[in-house]
Amino acid sequence: MLLQGREVAIVGGGPGGLTLARLLQMKGVRVKVYERDFNETARVQGATLDLHYESGLKAIKAAGLMDVLRRLTGRERIRGL
Ligand SMILES: Cc1cc2nc3c(=O)[nH]c(=O)nc-3n(C[C@H](O)[C@H](O)[C@H](O)COP(=O)(O)OP(=O)(O)OC[C@H]3O[C@@H](n4cnc5c(N)ncnc54)[C@H](O)[C@@H]3O)c2cc1C
Fold first, then answer.
1. Residue of 10, 37, 52 best suited for mutating to test ligand 1, as the one with most atoms within 8 Å of CB
2. Can you tell me the distance from the alpha carbon of 33 to that of 11, in angstroms, rounded to the nearest whole number?
3. Protein residue with its CA nearest to atom 31 in ligand 1
4. Would you state the pLDDT for residue 76?
5. Could you tell me which of 12, 26, 72, 74 has the fewest CB atoms within 10 Å of its CB?
Protein backbone atom coordinates (compact mmCIF):
# COMPACT_ATOMS: atom_id res chain seq x y z
CA MET A 1 0.00 0.00 0.00
CA LEU A 2 1.11 3.54 -0.76
CA LEU A 3 1.00 4.57 2.93
CA GLN A 4 2.80 1.50 4.31
CA GLY A 5 5.63 2.47 6.67
CA ARG A 6 4.66 6.10 6.66
CA GLU A 7 3.38 8.37 9.39
CA VAL A 8 0.20 10.29 8.72
CA ALA A 9 -0.80 13.50 10.51
CA ILE A 10 -4.52 14.13 10.86
CA VAL A 11 -5.65 17.59 11.92
CA GLY A 12 -8.87 17.37 13.91
CA GLY A 13 -10.01 14.74 16.39
CA GLY A 14 -13.71 14.87 15.54
CA PRO A 15 -15.65 11.83 14.31
CA GLY A 16 -14.13 12.16 10.83
CA GLY A 17 -10.51 12.45 11.96
CA LEU A 18 -10.74 9.72 14.58
CA THR A 19 -12.48 7.29 12.23
CA LEU A 20 -9.88 7.92 9.55
CA ALA A 21 -7.12 7.38 12.14
CA ARG A 22 -8.63 4.06 13.17
CA LEU A 23 -9.07 2.88 9.56
CA LEU A 24 -5.47 3.78 8.73
CA GLN A 25 -4.17 2.07 11.89
CA MET A 26 -6.01 -1.08 10.86
CA LYS A 27 -3.92 -0.97 7.66
CA GLY A 28 -0.72 -0.72 9.69
CA VAL A 29 -0.19 3.01 9.15
CA ARG A 30 1.26 5.09 12.00
CA VAL A 31 -1.07 7.97 12.76
CA LYS A 32 -0.86 11.13 14.86
CA VAL A 33 -4.05 13.09 15.50
CA TYR A 34 -3.73 16.77 16.34
CA GLU A 35 -6.72 18.29 18.15
CA ARG A 36 -6.87 21.91 19.25
CA ASP A 37 -9.52 21.42 21.94
CA PHE A 38 -7.86 20.64 25.27
CA ASN A 39 -10.65 18.23 26.26
CA GLU A 40 -14.32 17.44 25.58
CA THR A 41 -15.53 20.31 27.77
CA ALA A 42 -13.47 22.98 25.97
CA ARG A 43 -16.59 24.09 24.07
CA VAL A 44 -20.25 23.22 23.85
CA GLN A 45 -20.79 19.97 21.98
CA GLY A 46 -23.81 19.06 19.83
CA ALA A 47 -26.38 16.47 20.81
CA THR A 48 -26.12 12.73 20.19
CA LEU A 49 -24.64 12.01 16.76
CA ASP A 50 -27.09 10.75 14.15
CA LEU A 51 -25.46 7.75 12.52
CA HIS A 52 -27.03 6.57 9.27
CA TYR A 53 -26.51 3.13 7.78
CA GLU A 54 -25.09 4.35 4.44
CA SER A 55 -22.55 6.67 6.03
CA GLY A 56 -21.74 6.90 9.75
CA LEU A 57 -22.67 3.34 10.70
CA LYS A 58 -20.92 2.01 7.62
CA ALA A 59 -17.73 3.72 8.75
CA ILE A 60 -18.11 2.47 12.33
CA LYS A 61 -18.57 -1.06 11.01
CA ALA A 62 -15.55 -0.80 8.69
CA ALA A 63 -13.51 0.45 11.65
CA GLY A 64 -14.48 -2.65 13.67
CA LEU A 65 -16.19 -0.55 16.32
CA MET A 66 -19.69 -2.04 16.34
CA ASP A 67 -19.13 -3.83 19.65
CA VAL A 68 -17.86 -0.61 21.20
CA LEU A 69 -20.90 1.25 19.85
CA ARG A 70 -23.24 -1.41 21.28
CA ARG A 71 -21.51 -1.19 24.64
CA LEU A 72 -21.58 2.62 24.75
CA THR A 73 -25.20 2.89 23.63
CA GLY A 74 -26.40 -0.07 25.66
CA ARG A 75 -28.19 -1.38 22.54
CA GLU A 76 -27.60 -4.94 21.52
CA ARG A 77 -29.49 -4.46 18.23
CA ILE A 78 -28.78 -1.45 16.04
CA ARG A 79 -31.36 -0.72 13.36
CA GLY A 80 -30.16 -1.43 9.83
CA LEU A 81 -27.38 -3.82 10.87
C1 LIG B 1 -24.05 23.40 16.67
C2 LIG B 1 -23.97 22.04 15.99
C3 LIG B 1 -24.83 21.04 16.42
C4 LIG B 1 -24.81 19.78 15.81
N5 LIG B 1 -25.66 18.84 16.27
C6 LIG B 1 -25.63 17.60 15.72
C7 LIG B 1 -26.48 16.58 16.23
O8 LIG B 1 -27.26 16.79 17.15
N9 LIG B 1 -26.42 15.33 15.66
C10 LIG B 1 -25.55 15.08 14.66
O11 LIG B 1 -25.52 13.95 14.19
N12 LIG B 1 -24.74 16.03 14.16
C13 LIG B 1 -24.74 17.27 14.66
N14 LIG B 1 -23.93 18.24 14.15
C15 LIG B 1 -23.04 17.87 13.05
C16 LIG B 1 -21.80 17.16 13.61
O17 LIG B 1 -21.18 18.03 14.54
C18 LIG B 1 -20.87 16.88 12.46
O19 LIG B 1 -21.52 16.06 11.51
C20 LIG B 1 -19.60 16.16 12.92
O21 LIG B 1 -19.07 16.73 14.09
C22 LIG B 1 -18.59 16.23 11.78
O23 LIG B 1 -17.43 15.55 12.21
P24 LIG B 1 -16.02 16.00 11.67
O25 LIG B 1 -15.02 15.09 12.32
O26 LIG B 1 -16.03 16.09 10.20
O27 LIG B 1 -15.82 17.52 12.15
P28 LIG B 1 -15.78 18.12 13.62
O29 LIG B 1 -16.63 17.35 14.57
O30 LIG B 1 -16.03 19.59 13.46
O31 LIG B 1 -14.27 17.89 14.08
C32 LIG B 1 -13.21 18.68 13.61
C33 LIG B 1 -12.22 18.79 14.75
O34 LIG B 1 -11.05 19.42 14.25
C35 LIG B 1 -10.56 20.29 15.24
N36 LIG B 1 -9.75 21.28 14.55
C37 LIG B 1 -10.17 22.17 13.62
N38 LIG B 1 -9.15 22.92 13.18
C39 LIG B 1 -8.06 22.48 13.84
C40 LIG B 1 -6.69 22.85 13.83
N41 LIG B 1 -6.24 23.83 13.03
N42 LIG B 1 -5.83 22.19 14.64
C43 LIG B 1 -6.29 21.20 15.46
N44 LIG B 1 -7.56 20.79 15.52
C45 LIG B 1 -8.44 21.43 14.71
C46 LIG B 1 -11.79 20.86 15.91
O47 LIG B 1 -11.51 21.32 17.22
C48 LIG B 1 -12.71 19.62 15.92
O49 LIG B 1 -12.61 18.88 17.12
C50 LIG B 1 -23.92 19.51 14.74
C51 LIG B 1 -23.05 20.54 14.33
C52 LIG B 1 -23.07 21.78 14.93
C53 LIG B 1 -22.12 22.86 14.46
1. 37
2. 6
3. 14
4. 79
5. 74
One-letter identity of residue 1: M
**pLDDT tens figures, 13-33:** 999 999 999 999 999 999 999
Q: Are 40 and 14 in contact (CB under 8 A)?
A: no
Give Cα separations from 39 to 27, 35, 43, 46, 55 (angstroms): 28, 9, 9, 15, 26
Provide the H-helix boundaries in 6-73.
Answer: 15-26, 56-62, 66-73
For the chain, the residue count is 81
Q: Is the CB of 50 under 6 A from ligand 1?
A: yes
How far is residue 38's CA from residue 55's CA, in Å, rounded to a whole number? 28
- How far are the Cα atoms of 15, 57, 62, 70 from residue 49, in angstroms, in the given order? 9, 11, 18, 14
